[in-house]
Amino acid sequence: MEKLRIDTKPIEGQKPGTSGLRKKTREFMQPHFLENFVQSIWNGIGGAEGKSFVVGGDGRYFIDRAVQVILRMAAASGAVRVIVGQGGILSTPAASNLIRKRATDGGIILSASHNPGGPDEDFGIKFNTPNGGPAAEDVTDRIFNATTTLSHYDIVETQDLDLSVLGVSQLGEMVVEIVDPVADYAALMEELFDFEAISALFASGFTMRFDAMHAVTGPYATDILEGRLGAPKGTVMNGTPLPDFGGGHPDPNPIWAKPLVDMVMRNDGPDFAAASDGDGDRNMILGRGVYVTPSDSLAVLAANAHVVPGYKGGLAGVARSMPTSGAVDRVAEALGIECFETPTGWKFFGNLLDAGRATLCGEESAGTGSDHVREKDGLWAVLLWLNILAVTGKPVKTLMAAHWQRFGRNYYARHDYEAVETDKANALMDGLRRQLGTLPGRHFDAGTVSTADEFAYDDPIDGSRSEGQGIRILFEGGHRIVFRLSGTGTVGATVRVYLEFVENDPAKLERSAEDAVLPMITSVEAIAQLSTIIGRTSPDVST
Ligand code: G1P
Ligand code: ZN
């Protein structure tokens, strides 16, 4: 087998974030592009020599080719072992688990999460460190620096490996181990949850639909729900991963998973429904006649996790991203545990999880997880819900009503204004910044402002400070408006406005969220003159 050293040049502007490098698939398919970036990963982490890695992705278009390239390059750079999910498949949480369980030097995850896939859609590559979590900024900075100084890459010339056959083979000196992508993950789930109780729930006639959206959770959900837990065949919908996700957006929210939401809202709908995204880290939870917001889901899971084997010792603490509603805060208060408010992005939970300060964490954007891996985990959230439903024996709607009676309800909505001209979005934020000092004490439809600030976070573990993390306007009674610019948009700026209305009156807990947040919407306009400044009268997406 011949080892080749290919001369190349630095690549421009390829700065990976904590969700890796995301681009149009065609950019990744350009000659040498993927190779250049993979070599930059090796260079950024001090070489691949003597190291072991996990490699896999969400099944999207070009993953099969990309895995072959990564294997050849790992072999050429002296890696000793690469563990690959069969067919190149690994969900993001399953990859995180394998990295931890097999104590590898990290892993490469190929995905663009919930973005569409295909030759004209998106692709992505992300490096995770030995703790199983996305590489922190110092590592992504080193990878980025490596892209700017690149002079060559190393690759071996060889036939493609057959990724469909389980087992161990050699690529030159390197061992390639093709593993069942589901087995280790399912074993972890069996450790955490009471599979007997959940099986008994299904055996009693409880009905469920899980929409895998033609993405990576199909094989996981089919194996676990229909296989190990005995749910009837057909419980998993759209369970075959397709390179283009069947042409859809594999994003589990009421917009992209509308057929599932419509089904569960009918009187004859299933008892429980859920969906996950492209790479399996996000989740959406529904019960017959009720959509559970991700913020509420986090709160309910925190309040009930102790009934589940993996969390029977109670929770060390909980963490939520700043824009996530304060529903979980009240649960933490009742449980007497710490509650952390972190900037948006899963990376901010890593230190708290590693230090054992937080057990559960979540974001309003459909991400929920725990210290079992270092990524958010869609199917884990679904199984935690199922285990709680099995133990309590209550329908989701009843469980939610009881939760709100006990803790109050945080009505919640997020309005996204997409592809806003960058200077207009900045003008909006600057205008808000200038007003912060004048807002407390002023009255709006939402009530009297108690505090207004720009969120900054001091990491309690490593002491690092993150500034400029969104503008918070808090009203008496706990209602809140948050303004942020998205860090993940690709065209112009995305302005996100988060609206939260706290209701403690037991007679007013069953309104629609749209009605409940109306006073917040008029207050947004009064405070920020949003429609004038960004020239939009209604959001592009409302979730
Ligand atoms: C969005 C979500 C955030 C999530 C991130 C990555 O980021 O809001 O919660 O962690 O995607 O999945 P944003 O575009 O708001 O910066
Ligand atoms: Zn994802």
Could you explain the architecture of this structure?
It is a single chain. The chain is α/β, with parallel strands linked by helices. The chain has three domains: 180 residues, Alpha-D-Glucose-1,6-Bisphosphate, subunit A, domain 3 (Alpha-D-Glucose-1,6-Bisphosphate, Chain A, domain 3), CATH 3.40.120.10; 223 residues, Alpha-D-Glucose-1,6-Bisphosphate, subunit A, domain 3 (Alpha-D-Glucose-1,6-Bisphosphate, Chain A, domain 3), CATH 3.40.120; 134 residues, 2-Layer Sandwich (TATA-Binding Protein), CATH 3.30.310. Helices cover 34% and strands 26% of the residues. The strands form six sheets. Strands 2-6-5-3-4-9-8 form a seven-stranded mixed beta sheet, with helices on both faces. Strand 20 and strand 21 form a beta hairpin. Helix 10 runs parallel beside helix 11. The longest helix is centred in the last third of the chain and has 15 residues. The structure holds 1-O-phosphono-alpha-D-glucopyranose and zinc ion. Zinc ion binds next to loops. 1-O-phosphono-alpha-D-glucopyranose (G1P) binds next to loops.
In a few lines, what is going on in this structure?
With 543 residues, the chain is an alpha/beta fold. Helix 2 (33-44) crosses helix 3 and helix 10 packs parallel to helix 11 (327-335).
Enter the CATH topology name of the largest domain: Alpha-D-Glucose-1,6-Bisphosphate, Chain A, domain 3
Low-confidence stretches: none
The SS-based structural class is alpha/beta
**Which shape, going by the Cα principal axes?**
globular
Total DSSP helices: 18
The small-molecule ligands in this entry are:
1-O-phosphono-alpha-D-glucopyranose, zinc ion
**Head-to-tail CA distance between termini:** 53 Å
Strand order of the largest sheet: 2-6-5-3-4-9-8
- State the share of residues found in helices, binned by percent: 25-40%
Strand content: 25-35%
What is the class of the largest domain in the CATH system? Alpha Beta
CATH architectural name of the largest domain: 3-Layer(aba) Sandwich
> What is the domain tally?
3
Number of strands: 27
Radius of gyration: 23 Å
What is the mean pLDDT? 96
Largest sheet geometry: 7 strands, mixed
The CATH homologous superfamily of the largest domain corresponds to: Alpha-D-Glucose-1,6-Bisphosphate, subunit A, domain 3
